[in-house]
């Protein structure tokens, strides 16, 4: 059965996201079980950064996209688990001393602080590979062509032309003496953040074998949403407190990070995020009221305070 999570009305986005997060955590508990023996520490570190905490924005996008096409909840949850594992791996590695060197994530010590650097690196590596194990399993979809397409899409979104490539551009921008222009920052953020969000929005259409136009519309929605989300994240870094967001703030400017907030200023960056949200919503014009949660999510990404 495919439906709005229990306890959430059709327009109650916070309740829907909370209910979906609980579902995703329960599914992650199954695909990342506790183990005994020599691998126990590795699994503990993987679970530490993956289960509990976080908004589950990417997983929620998968579930809501799949709901447009009556995809089974189990299939959608498995894909949601895969994207959340890849996201968790990226956060573990981002927080390492060689990268952003953060001590706090989601209100608790980062993985390398709770365990150690070597374990954190291995936990991230294992989460990435395990995500593809989950996607490739028959339980995710009976059609192998669908599973192959999901694997291809996520590998592209997470790889050198996606998230990892964007992280490299981010590091190079910090080390460069010259400031990036708006176009270069937009490309950096599209790769680093936007590609995984685009995958998350489009994955449900792939699971549902939707028409190409519907798949393209959800992918475009995800691209615009991802760009708005990154600007909102940068605005939070500049204006929110550590207590609000559960991680260190006011770090981007000090680290010399290339952001639209730094280039445009707070007000112009907010206006740009609002334009992107409007464009994201426009891509949903061909969908029924069943997509209202996706429309509400677009507004949420720039209104959030954590």
From TrEMBL:
Alphabetized InterPro entries for the sequence: Isoprenoid_synthase_dom_sf (IPR008949), Polyprenyl_synt (IPR000092), Polyprenyl_synt_CS (IPR033749), Prenyl_diphosphate_synthase (IPR053378)
Gene3D superfamilies per the UniProt record, alphabetical: Farnesyl Diphosphate Synthase
Pfam families: polyprenyl_synt
SUPFAM superfamilies hit by this protein: Terpenoid synthases
Name of the protein this chain belongs to: Farnesyl diphosphate synthase
Key words of the record: Isoprene biosynthesis, Magnesium, Metal-binding, Transferase
Catalytic activity, EC: 2.5.1.1, 2.5.1.10
Chain segments annotated as coiled-coil in the UniProt record: none
Keyword Coiled coil: no
One cellular component term from this protein's GO annotations in UniProt: cytoplasm
Family stated for the protein in its record: Belongs to the FPP/GGPP synthase family.
GO MF annotation: an example: dimethylallyltranstransferase activity
Taxonomic source organism: Roseococcus suduntuyensis
Gene Ontology biological process terms from the UniProt entry: terpenoid biosynthetic process
Keyword NADP appears in the UniProt entry: no
Cofactors that this protein relies on: Mg(2+)
